[in-house]
Structure formats: C-alpha cells, structure tokens
C-alpha cells in the first residue's frame, strides 16, 4: 500500500518541464518517423531508432538552451533585452540542430546501411533541415520565455493583491490605534487641563493630534515614505504622548543623514515606537528612553528601536507587527527582515533590516 502511494506521489511530482519536453518532442518526431517510413522505406526498426534519435536531439538542444538561460539569468530580463540575446541564439541552435541531424543521417547511411557517403557533403546539406531547425528552435525558445513571463506576471499580480490587502489592514490597524478611546481620552483630557493653564501648549497639542489623525487617514494611500517624513510623524506622536508621560518618556534619535530620502514602508517606524511605548514605557513607573537608530551597514539599512521592557510572551508580537513582517516579505521579495529580541533582562530591541537601493521607488 505504501509503495503504491509513493509511486503516485512520484508521478504527481514529475516536473511540468519534463512532461512538456517528452510529450512535445515525441509528438513532433512522429511526423519525421512517418516520413522516413513511407518515403524512404526505413523499415520498422530503423524508423523507431530514427524516431528516438530525433526526439533526443530536440530534447538535448532545448535543455542545453534552458541551462544557458538559467545560468545567465535571462528570465529576469525585460522583453527588449531578452530579444537582443535570443535572436542570435536561435540561429546558433538552428545551426547546431542542422549539423547534428546531418551527422545522424550520415552515420545512419554509412554505418547501418553500408553506403559510401562523403561526410563533408552530408554536413553542408542544409535545405530544408536548417529551416526546420530555425522554426523549431524559435517556437520552443519563444514558448519557453512566454510561459515564464506569464508566470512572473501572475506571481506579481498575486503579490500585489496580497500586499494591497495587508497594507489596507495595516492602515486600518494604525487608524484604529490612533482613534481608540484610551488614546483619545488621554490626549483630550491632557489638552483640557492645558486650556486654562497653558493655552499655547493646548493649541499646539490640538495641532499635533489633528496632524496625527490626518496622517493616519491620508498617508495610508502611500506604500512608501521617506525616512525624513516618517520621522516627522514619529516626533509629532512622541510630543503628543509626552503630555501624558511627561518626563517619563524620552526619545533619542541617531540617524545617518544620507538616508533621509531613503524610502521605507509607510508608518513602519511609528509602529515600532508605538509598541515601545505600549509594551515598555507605559508599564514602567519611572518610564525610560526609547533609542531610535537608523544606519547603513554594508548594503543594508537598519532601523533599530531599543526600549526598556521585557518580552513576556509571543502575544507581545501583535497584529500590527505581523502585518509589518508580511509587508516587508512581499515588498522586498523576502530580502528584508524584522526581529524582536531581548538584549538583557530590562531591554528589548526591535529591528527592521532593508536592502539598500539608490532607486527611491524601490
């Protein structure tokens, strides 16, 4: 029973590429088998041998092209750059197809049949074999790349759709966090107490709250934002929260200023700072300092938030962090990472690592 299941699994996992290779060239070679059997009177045995050789030649040459294309990374090229490469390659492979078939024909007639044939005359016999090779190589190579181009488009469309869903969810989570009653009541109560005592600070706090809520509503439509713009939002958020925490909350920022224009996923730093306050500063009576470091290490951009606190359980990683991880995975093709670790018994580090690119549009 287990043997039968294993056999079924092997059949089901047989690569599509080889299924197409074997079935495609087997079908194509039937035409020539029929031709040599009816026109050239090859006989059954010689016809079968010729059929196997024709299919093998086609599979060998096209598989050799596939290995070349994979090694050279041609599947990642644009259509224009790809065409520049495959047009001469098609001609070269058509020539190889012609030469191999002529050698097959020569050895067939000299070794198997026993006739006296000149090998040079056999090799220069190109019509119609070269045209056939040109047609077959063109069809196979173009079909191969069109299939992979289609697959890449399907994957890209799926990733974009998934990213849109995740991004929208992250935006809703962020908006919900900003609009939750606890946050609003604390902010409004702080503003209320300042209206008479310090009207200027009260007006400033209202502006900050307004800007923060506006950013939650309008920045959500951007997939990426420059670090400089993101830090501006973070500073407004910290200034507003300091009304509640006062000297218990401090933010220390260290940034490589050459990265000011580098773009990152929108509201990603703010999410880390919010978590640092929620799971760290808010739970400690004396509060503490949130250290935000943004630097370039080798070919990576590191965004590091260190805050006092502890990682109590896996629940510390909330929905917002999970969404951020998924956005990073999709937007940077699994080349970006997020980590949350305890540096010691009283400090937690959250780090985002993003590949550095000079292209601001990613």
From TrEMBL:
Domain of life: Bacteria
GO MF annotations in UniProt: kinase activity
Pfam family, one: His_kinase
Record-annotated membrane-spanning stretches: 16-37, 43-61, 82-103, 123-143
Acyltransferase recorded as keyword: no
Range of residues in the leader sequence: none
Alphabetical list of SUPFAM superfamilies matching this protein: ATPase domain of HSP90 chaperone/DNA topoisomerase II/histidine kinase
Domain Signal transduction histidine kinase internal region: 170-249
Protein name: Histidine kinase
């Amino acid at each position: 029973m287990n043997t039968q299941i294993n056999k079924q699994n092997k059949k089901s996992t047989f690569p599509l590429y080889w299924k197409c290779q074997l079935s495609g060239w087997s079908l194509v070679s039937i035409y020539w088998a029929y031709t040599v059997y009816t026109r050239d009177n090859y006989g059954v045995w010689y016809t079968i041998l010729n059929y196997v050789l024709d299919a093998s030649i086609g599979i060998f040459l096209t598989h050799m092209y596939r290995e070349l294309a994979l090694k050279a990374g041609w599947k990642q090229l644009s259509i224009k750059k790809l065409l520049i490469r495959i047009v001469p390659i098609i001609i070269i492979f058509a020539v190889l197809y012609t030469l191999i078939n002529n050698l097959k024909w020569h050895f067939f007639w000299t070794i198997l049949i026993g006739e006296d044939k000149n090998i040079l005359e056999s090799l220069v016999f190109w019509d119609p074999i070269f045209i056939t090779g040109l047609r077959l190589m063109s069809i196979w190579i173009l079909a191969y790349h069109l299939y992979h181009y289609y697959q890449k488009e399907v994957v890209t469309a799926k990733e974009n759709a998934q990213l849109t869903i995740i991004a929208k969810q992250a935006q809703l989570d962020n908006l919900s966090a900003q609009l939750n009653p606890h946050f609003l009541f604390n902010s409004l109560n702080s503003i209320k107490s300042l209206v008479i005592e310090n009207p200027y600070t009260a007006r400033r706090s209202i502006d900050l709250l307004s800007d923060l809520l506006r950013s939650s509503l309008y920045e959500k439509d951007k997939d990426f934002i420059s670090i400089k713009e993101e830090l501006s939002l973070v500073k407004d958020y910290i200034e507003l929260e300091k009304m509640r925490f006062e000297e218990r909350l401090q933010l220390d920022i260290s940034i490589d200023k050459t990265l000011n224009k580098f773009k990152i996923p929108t509201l990603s730093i703010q999410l880390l700072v919010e978590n640092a306050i929620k799971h760290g500063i808010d739970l400690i009576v004396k509060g503490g300092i949130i250290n935000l470091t943004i630097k370039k290490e080798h070919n990576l951009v590191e965004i590091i938030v260190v805050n006092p606190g502890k990682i109590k359980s896996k629940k510390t990683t909330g929905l917002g962090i999970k969404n951020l991880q998924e956005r990073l995975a999709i937007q940077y093709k699994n080349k970006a990472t997020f980590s949350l670790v305890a540096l010691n018994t009283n400090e937690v580090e959250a780090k985002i690592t993003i590949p550095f690119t000079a292209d601001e549009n990613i």
